[in-house]
Design goal:
Layout (H helix, E strand, L loop, with lengths): L12 H9 L1 E2 L26 E3 L2 E3 L8 E9 L20 E3 L7 E7 L4 E9 L9 E4 H7 L6 E8 L1 H12 L71 E2 L7 E8 L2 H11 L5 E8 L2 E11 L2 H13 L6 E4 L1
Length: about 325
């Protein structure tokens, strides 16, 4: 399963080199965007248009079923105080993350599959650039998840639907390309109105005449209100920094070159990739459908997986990725 995000900003080679050097764990940092509204401290609601990185097309979209495993990295000081892809100022001490395709903002639950530590993060940026990463988290998030020193971790990333909807509702008040347009009200027709005094019904008294124009008016009584309505916030309260620990089993790293509904297509790709190492076809059932995955692994470390992934991609399999089972 591959995910995609909106058009990234044009970068010079020098700018790209500086970006790649500024992120821990070899993630390459988040993607930057220049299209859309001017920056806003509270952030805009944004989805975005398809774009490409290394020949792979990513399509940003609302996906309430998103649940993926892979490798996460983190980014910090070199981006602190700079604008994120949805117009916020990046705070490396806040609980935020960069994702390639989920709407901004969204809320995800991120679990470190090595230690079970899990927290909620708000997606407010695009990225990562690096091959083999599914998420770039803030420095504080990496500290809470327990991988700030290592730089990377095996993670599970799952969208939280209700929390994401609440974030979306608040962010849409700030505008943005993904916000719904304001409702258009049709003009009411103008008609001529005739006024005519009617006699009172039989057996009833006529209403008293209106006071003269210069007659003093009795002011209505003053009604004290208990309190004024609470203003609607422009941004949600910060997420809790409380860490839960979930039970996790042993997980392993793989490089997946592809997944097919037909076994013969999987076997054909396996033969093509055989010179690169021990590649297997593994059957699985996903949402009631049989699929055939072409995989290398298990692989001992993220560094080894990165090296093998680069070889597979350079052989022409652009959508190969690192996965964790």
């Amino acid at each position: 399963m591959f995910h995609k995000f909106s058009p990234i900003a044009c970068l010079t080679l020098l700018g790209l080199a500086l970006t790649l050097a500024g992120c821990a764990g070899g993630s390459g940092g988040p993607a930057r965007e220049t299209s859309g509204p001017a920056p806003n401290a509270n952030g805009y609601y944004k989805i975005g248009n398809p774009y490409q990185i290394d020949g792979v097309t990513y399509y940003p979209a609302v996906d309430w079923t998103y649940d993926e495993t892979g490798i996460a990295s983190w980014y910090g000081p070199n981006f602190h105080g700079k604008y994120t892809a949805n117009g916020e100022l990046y705070d490396m001490n806040a609980l935020t993350a960069a994702h390639r395709t989920l709407p901004m903002p969204s809320v995800v639950q991120v679990t470190n599959l090595d230690n079970g530590r899990t927290i909620q993060l708000r997606i407010n940026d695009r990225g990562p650039y690096a091959r083999g990463r599914i998420l770039d988290v803030s420095r504080r998030a990496a500290q809470l998840l327990g991988f700030d020193s290592a730089g990377t971790a095996k993670v599970r990333v799952k969208i939280l639907v209700q929390e994401s909807m609440e974030m979306e509702s608040l962010a849409q008040r700030n505008g943005g390309a993904g916000a719904p347009p304001p409702p258009k009200l049709a003009a009411l027709p103008l008609t001529e109105v005739n006024a005519e005094a009617l006699a009172p019904p039989p057996g009833t008294a006529a209403a008293p005449p209106p006071p003269a124009a210069n007659a003093p008016l009795t002011p209505p009584p003053v009604v004290a209100l208990d309190a004024s309505p609470a203003p609607v916030p422009d941004q949600p309260p910060p997420l809790s920094q409380k860490v839960r620990v979930l039970p996790v089993g042993k997980s392993q790293i793989y490089v997946q070159a592809g997944a097919f509904s037909r076994a013969d297509n999987a076997l054909h790709l396996k033969e093509r990739l055989a010179p690169l190492g021990d590649v297997k076809v593994v059957g699985a059932r996903v949402n009631g459908v049989d699929v055939y995955r072409v995989r290398f692994g298990p692989i001992k470390s993220v560094d080894e997986a990165d090296s093998l992934l680069n070889k597979v991609i350079d052989s022409g399999i652009k959508e190969a990725r690192i996965t964790v089972d």
